[in-house]
Amino acid sequence: MWIAILMGLRNIRRRLSRTLLTVSMLAFGTLMLVFVIGLNEGTYKDMIRMSTTTWNGQFQVLNQDYNDSPSLYESVENSDKIMEQLRAVSGVKAVTARVETAGLFSVDNRTAGGQLTGVIPEHEKEVASLVGTISEGSFLGKTKDPEALPIVLGDGLAKRLKVKLHGEVVFMGQGADGSTAAELYEVVGLIDSGIHEMDASMAFIRLSDAQELLVLGDKVHRIVGRVESERVLSGLDAKVDLPEGDVLQTWEQIMPEVSRGIEQDREGSVVILYIILFMVVLGIVNTLMMSVYERTREFGVMKALGTPGWQIILVVICEGAWLAILGVGLGTLLGTLLILSLQDVGLQMLDQPVEFAGMQILKIYPANTMLGNVTYPVIIAVSSVLGSIWPAWRASRLDPITALREF
Tell me, what's the pLDDT at 356? Predict the structure, then answer.
C-alpha cells in the first residue's frame, strides 16, 4: 500500500507541466465553489438577521394554537417566570413580552382598523430594530398631559387618521372578559419602518396598559427573544419549563417561508457543484489516460513480471488521489483565506444600500461554513479519485506482449 502511494507521488512528477495544469484546474474549480458558497451563506445570514431582528426575533414562546388562529384567549401565563428562565440560559441576549389585539382606531370622525401591540419599551429595543425607526417623537416616552396614556403609531396609520404628534387617538376592541375595551391615548411617536403593511396598521402601547385594557391580568401572547448564535437555539426548549399547551418555536418555524427560500436556493447551488464535478472528472480522466498511454511499455513490463492487476489499479488511483489532494487542498485553502479576508470588510455588490426596517445592506459578508469548506471539497476530491478508476482499469487490462511492442 505504501509503495503504491509513493509510486503515485513519483509518477505525477514525471510530466510536471501536465500535473500543474491539472492541479490548477482542480484548485480553481474548488476555489470558485468555496467562494460562491461562502457568498451565498453570507447572504443567507443577512436575510435571517433582517427577518429576525426587525420584529419576529429568533425564537418565540406562545400558545401552540396562536399562530394558526390568533385569539385574545390563546395566551401564555407566568410570563415573568418564563422570561427569567430564558435570561438565565447562556447565549440568550434579550427577551421581551407582547400582547396583541386587533381593533379600531379613531380620530374625530375618521376610523381605521389596525393591530395594537403592548410592549415593554426598554426590553423591546433590545429585541426588535423596528422600534428604532421612530421618525418623530419617542418610543412610548412621556406625554404632554401627565394623565394621558402614550401610544406610538405607524406613520401610514397616522396619515389614514390624519393625526400628528401629541394628537389624541381612541382605540376600541374587545376585552378577554367579553367587555368593550376602549381607551384614549396621546400620540408620542411615529414609526417609519419602510414596511408599508406594518406602518399602515401597527400601533404600540405599554404592556401593562394593554393587559389592563384587555383584562388579561399578567398574561401575554408572545415572549420574543434573541440569541448570540444559532447554536443556542438547539435544545433551548428543553432548558425552559413551559406550561402545558405552550411551545417554544425558532425562526424557522415562525417564518417557514424564509427557511424554505434559503433551502431552495441552496439546492440551486448544487448545479454549480455538478458543473465543477464534470470538469474535475473529465480533467482527471484525461490526465491519467494520457499518463497510462505514455507508460504502456512500463505497465507491460510490470504485467510480464507478474504484477497483479489490482496493484496496477492501486498505483494509478493513488496518482489520481495525489492530484485531488493537491488541487482540492490548495483550492480550499485559497478559498478559505479569501473569505477570511472579506468576512469583516465585506464585498460591495450594490451601488446604493437597501434599507429595511431601519437596517441597511450594502455589502455581502461571505462566511466559511462546513458545507462550503468541507463537504463540497470532499465530494470533489472523492469524485477525482473515482474518475481515476477507468484509466486504472485500462492499465490493469493491458496485454503484456502487445504493450511491450508499443514502443
Answer: 46
Measured from the Cβ of residue 324, the count of other Cβ atoms closer than 10 Å reads: 26
End-to-end alpha-carbon separation of the chain, Å? 29
CA atoms within 13 A on the CB side of 88: 9
Dihedral pair phi/psi, residue 23, rounded to 5°: -65, -40
Whether 10 has a pLDDT exceeding 70, the answer reads no
Which residues is 173 bridged to in the sheet? 181
pTM recorded for the entire structure? 0.78
Grid cell of 354 as nine digits: 437597501
Domain ranges of the chain: 2-52+259-404, 65-244
Would strands 110-119 and 202-206 be described as parallel, antiparallel, or unpaired? parallel
Gap between the Cα atoms of 55 and 153, Å rounded: 15
| Confidence class for position 358, pLDDT limits 50, 70, 90 | very low
Return the C-alpha cell found at 333: 485553502
Pair 183, 206: CB distance under 8 Å: no
Residue 318's Cβ-side half-sphere holds a number of Cα atoms within 13 Å equal to 18
